[in-house]
Description:
Strand 2 and strand 3 (75-81) form a beta hairpin. It is globular and about 50 Å long. The chain has a three-stranded antiparallel β-sheet. 53% of the residues lie in helices and 15% in strands. Helix 1 (12-20) packs across helix 4. It contains four helices and three strands; from the N terminus they run αβααββα. It is of the alpha+beta class.
Amino acid sequence: xxxxxxxxxxxxxxxxxxxxxxxxxxxxxxxxxxxxxxxxxxxxxxxxxxxxxxxxxxxxxxxxxxxxxxxxxxxxxxxxxxxxxxxxxxxxxxxxxxxxxxxxxxxxxx
Length: 110
């Protein structure tokens, strides 16, 4: 039986992570939870995809990481958007809007 949850399109994870961090710094588990929550549990981000993406975004300067203590008193890396990351989020949202409009046109949903 097929999984009822949607698979992430390649390239959308960066956008979802940046969007999740828009309001406040979060640790990886919190980011995955936020994506699930905002998508009404239709999207899940596996750790094997999430952490490489976080490291990549940090290398690009879009997010920064600082060690802190999570709600359950565990040491965790908290990620937050940089100024460059905020600009990238706007660009990614614009690109996604154009892509989704184009796909809807092809599907006849516009």
